Amino acid sequence: MSMTGVLRPGHIQIRVLDMGEALEHYVGAIGLRETDRDDQGRVYLKAWDEYDAFSIVLRETDEAGMDFVSYKVDCVETLDRLEKDVQAFGLETQRIPAGDLNRCGERVRFVIPTGHNFELFAEKEVLGRTGISDTNPEAWPADASGMKVRRFDHCLLYGDDIEGVEKLLTEVLGFQLTEQALAEDNETQIAVFYSCSNKAHDIAFVRHPEKNKFHHASFLLETWEDILRAADIMSMKEIDIDIGPTRHGITAGRTIYFFDPSGNRNEVFCEVSNWYPDYPVKSWTGDQIGKAIFYHDRALNERFLSVVT
Amino acid sequence: MSMTGVLRPGHIQIRVLDMGEALEHYVGAIGLRETDRDDQGRVYLKAWDEYDAFSIVLRETDEAGMDFVSYKVDCVETLDRLEKDVQAFGLETQRIPAGDLNRCGERVRFVIPTGHNFELFAEKEVLGRTGISDTNPEAWPADASGMKVRRFDHCLLYGDDIEGVEKLLTEVLGFQLTEQALAEDNETQIAVFYSCSNKAHDIAFVRHPEKNKFHHASFLLETWEDILRAADIMSMKEIDIDIGPTRHGITAGRTIYFFDPSGNRNEVFCEVSNWYPDYPVKSWTGDQIGKAIFYHDRALNERFLSVVT
Amino acid sequence: MSMTGVLRPGHIQIRVLDMGEALEHYVGAIGLRETDRDDQGRVYLKAWDEYDAFSIVLRETDEAGMDFVSYKVDCVETLDRLEKDVQAFGLETQRIPAGDLNRCGERVRFVIPTGHNFELFAEKEVLGRTGISDTNPEAWPADASGMKVRRFDHCLLYGDDIEGVEKLLTEVLGFQLTEQALAEDNETQIAVFYSCSNKAHDIAFVRHPEKNKFHHASFLLETWEDILRAADIMSMKEIDIDIGPTRHGITAGRTIYFFDPSGNRNEVFCEVSNWYPDYPVKSWTGDQIGKAIFYHDRALNERFLSVVT
Amino acid sequence: MSMTGVLRPGHIQIRVLDMGEALEHYVGAIGLRETDRDDQGRVYLKAWDEYDAFSIVLRETDEAGMDFVSYKVDCVETLDRLEKDVQAFGLETQRIPAGDLNRCGERVRFVIPTGHNFELFAEKEVLGRTGISDTNPEAWPADASGMKVRRFDHCLLYGDDIEGVEKLLTEVLGFQLTEQALAEDNETQIAVFYSCSNKAHDIAFVRHPEKNKFHHASFLLETWEDILRAADIMSMKEIDIDIGPTRHGITAGRTIYFFDPSGNRNEVFCEVSNWYPDYPVKSWTGDQIGKAIFYHDRALNERFLSVVT
Q1: What is the dihedral of CA C284, C287, C290, C291, to 10 degrees?
Q2: Does C134 sit within 8 Å of D284, measured CB to CB?
Q3: Cβ of D171 under 8 Å from any chain C Cβ?
Q4: A:B CB pairs within 8 Å
Q5: Predicted confidence band of residue A2 (pLDDT cuts 50, 70, 90)
Q6: How much of chain A is in helix, strand and coil states, percent to nearest 5?
Q7: Which letter, b or e, does each residue of D103-122 get, where b requires 16 or more Cβ atoms within 10 Å of its Cβ?
Q8: Residue among A8, A48, A227, A188 at smallest CA distance from A128
Q9: How many CB atoms lie within 10 A of CB D46?
Q10: Sequence-separated (6 or more) residues with CB below 8 Å from residue D145
């Protein structure tokens, strides 16, 4: 089998200040569907083009941010093997029992060098695509609503030990560096993008003095028309837009950054899949950092580097 | 590393009746770029978003069709291993020396159960994307021309032993069945689509009484607007359209089938990448075969089943 | 005032065989909104971007087709003046009293040389755009449904006396010929398109041996993406597509022809407005009639010339 | 004839600081075509979808801005009549002889209450659409380049006597107010948009303490994809973007504002034509001025009100 090991972002648990407002945002505006709740009050959501039972978990508390992000691996044997490899790399791991998250199997959790909780898991109940059968599937679900995002695609995390994360991701977990933005010295990595698949990125990091900061969770749309429609919905629903519609230089994706009611940044974006393991890493030089992030404005907005949760 | 083994379609050698007319079509209209010629008179072409030296090889002769299709594997060790596995599967293999195709390493060739020449290779000279640097890459090349296709994406082959091909692809070469259209008995496979990656398909077959027939080579575009623009170019350049612009039910891709001057069918299409190894196979029942292939017309045109080269 | 006289297509009354099925089609699929019914059982519909109370009237009877099409003029004085001009042209006119159609003022009806009932009116109740205020208007209505057509845009009628219609439209009613397709003699007009505005066409005719035949009523969409979405909806709702998505040569519009459950042809299309009174007429020669009508296929399908109601 | 009087923006003369740089911008980037030069050194440009000989005139001098904007009327008799009407309104008029601008007939010039030079003319040589015949016209010109703008569409002017302009445009010249943004008192007009056609606007004004200021000249594109492509070209060619890609609330157009090398603002935009004389004026209240101008950001950027030439 060609794709083995870590397959994709499986889910992310996001902290929100008010569950009602959060659901109005993630369900009512973004168009995720609620699939479950648990006795801790957590709400489980999925996008219409996802098969697994959930990809977003919302937890109400008094500080916004990300609790953890979890990647799905291809089987239980891989989970066991990677757990040992992570331990051999020098990190402590924790087994979270099946059922801690509804419909999800055992998870292996560890704190990566940037301070974030990172998890692997192999099993999650399959609910199938929302509103579309596997037999004679229609092109899209007639009852999709809001921005109609297709999947939780990746997250961007801020933290200090970028070099440590690269070592872990590439030497232990099978990710590859696909694209990077460099500091003015043209050596130090400022922003790094990793793929565990054909995708241009499955996770990304930006160098930042604090550990364990969350920049955004990103949702896939299909076209630039979808991006416009999403921006229009943000105006109609008075959602705070950070920047966009615009294009990223990195990945050439088309994008909007915006904020949930708790201040967590979201992204909707579209791009053509374009990574293979034998492709060269793309690099943006220090003098082009603005264009690397925001291809049209060719300058960072002040929020990009400072506003994280 | 997550992606291993067979990575992607590397190149296809297509027979054309007149090289001048063929280049007017593949370069002038489709927008491939000539990168090389050899002393046999073969012409090597690549699409702008490809890194390797070529993906299409044209050979002038007096009968149209496909000579062979070749898939790139991740390394020489994989090539050696898969050669043995194919032999163990019961097929004879042939080593084609490096340099037989310009800038390409050794290839392992074998005839698959449907009668087609299928090859694996591990090494090809990298030229980089056409008109775009790996450092501070622009979003697209300013000098792209014609339909501006991004890559050779897959091919669809017609042949008899569909079951034999499935066994070879899935048990030996690491492909997975992603989607299928069934006959009226809802058991016999009529059309089968296989992925060796995240893509919805890297190769496809249709059951057909003759061996070794070629249905089409497909090129990736990015958007439905690009599809329209390609159709317009076909009208302006008097290229024969088979069907489209339309959508496929299978993969939900948007598409045009058209013919090169030698009668070989081409496709331009766009779709969102959507395959993972843990996804269910999608199936189209026998009564929906028309919608499976042509989602809007909901009927096959007579050419789809009969015109092959 | 620059625009005077006849302003635009105001409404069309279409005969349907079953009102329930018709509403499932025109409301449920096309996305028109019901605004009224009358004691004859007629149902009044409008598109979201229209201000007037209705643009489509459906009447249930046992033969499909068009009862009449009505154009709005700028004021009552113009209505009176044009009534006299039409009489002077040699046609009998009939005054239909206000209220014959709900919320609509007096109409002047006459039979044009191709045998169709053609009407003028000056007054209709304004309901405003559906779901959008005139104060701080949103970009589009959040509750639009189905294909989300923006307006009834034009109709295409089949009949014999094309020359008589041209005389009436251009010499009396202030329309202009904008584009035409010619017969093989390159003189006889086969298809003629007229504008009373900036639009590429407000009404069109095709030469046909029978009088008073209806080819299609057309609804405006905004983009080629909308056209695709409409085609997808047609597949999901099992609406019979005549042809498309494709492009017309004439007007360069992008289009789908499809049928309502009674066999009346509809069109959804998009195009950029591009007519001024000082523009030259565009002509398609007899050898290019296929491309004139269907720009991509470059051939008429048999239904285009034969299936009318 | 339905459209009479003032038909459309005919041309605008823009002052540039360096003709070479200006041509690199207007021809090389925006995609206008040079059609003429005169002995004053002025350069004449047209867009591909325009029939008349030019729509943009560039004049090199040492201060950027607009010399004049000229509207085409339907015939010489209208020109004579409107000249008298403008005089009766109380403005002095000046006849500029035919040939003062190459290939252009007599122009009637007057200074409107906001201090801008405004002209009317009836005759200009017709060159036809660029690269497209009136016989069997292709959908678009294969040799279009740069942003491929379709036409000079309108201009936005800044000045003080907004009320005087409204009186002139609506009572004398046959324009209609289509949409307006109001001050915080919800009475005073801040931004006003006028149509002389079916278009959402043919000219616009913003209230400003200085007379005779130029905000932007706008060029039509067809789709939101075209807008993205234009923004990408701006990045590749290092053109300074003011704002966008985004949407206007007013007209719901999709837009980019950007600057020519002399500091004159340009716009590329797309929208669906949607004005008729019987439509209500749309109004934006004082608390929604940001959304009226920039629908997504919902706030004015500081440049919108302050940077004019």
Answers
A1: -50
A2: no
A3: no
A4: 133
A5: low
A6: 20, 35, 45
A7: bbbbbbbbbbbbbbbbbbbb
A8: A48
A9: 23
A10: D28, D31
pLDDT digits (tens, 9 = 90+) for D178-225: 999 999 999 999 999 999 999 999 999 999 999 999 999 999 999 999
Which residues are CB-contacts of A112 (< 8 A; sequence separation ≥ 6)? A91, A118, A164, A165, A168
* Residue of C197, C175, C188, C217 lying closest to C85 (CA atoms): C175
What's the rounded Cα separation, in Å, for the pair A242 and D75? 51
* Partner residue opposite A234 with nearest CB, options D225, D235, D296: D296
Dihedral of the CA atoms D93, D95, D101, D103 (nearest 10)?
A: 130
With contacts defined as CB-CB under 8 Å, which chain B residues touch A280?
51, 126, 128, 134
pLDDT digits (tens, 9 = 90+) for A88-118: 999 999 999 999 999 999 999 999 999 999 9
Q: Could A277 and B174 be called an inter-chain contact, meaning their C-beta atoms sit closer than 8 Å?
A: no
> For D152, phi and psi rounded to 5 degrees?
-75, 120
pTM over 0.95: yes
* Chain C residues inside the 8 Å CB shell of B241: 296-298
Q: Tokens 């565009």 identify what position?
A: C282
Q: Which residue of chain C comes nearest to D248, CA vs CA?
A: C139
Taking only Cα atoms into account, the Rg of chain B, rounded to an integer number of angstroms, comes to 18
Residue B223 sits at the chain D interface (C-beta within 8 Å): yes
Decide if B53 contacts B43 (C-beta within 8 A). no
Are the beta carbons of C210 and C159 closer than 8 angstroms?
yes
Q: In DSSP terms, which residues pair with C108 in a beta bridge? A: C95, C120
Q: What is the identity of the amino acid at A104? A: C
Best to test chain C binding among D82, D123, D278 (most C CBs inside 10 Å): D278
Q: What is the DSSP string of D48-59?
A: TT--BS-SEEEE
A184 token code pair: 């003015």
Compute φ and ψ for D269, nearest 5 degrees. -155, 165
- Per-residue tokens: D148: 């491929």
> Could you tell me which residues come within 8 angstroms of residue A79 by beta carbon, excluding any fewer than 6 positions away?
A73, A106, A108, A120, A121, A122
Using 50, 70 and 90 to split pLDDT, how confident is the model at D226?
Answer: very high
ipTM: 0.96
Which amino acid is located at D8 in the chain? R
CB atoms within 10 A of CB A259: 20
d(CA C106, CA C103): 10
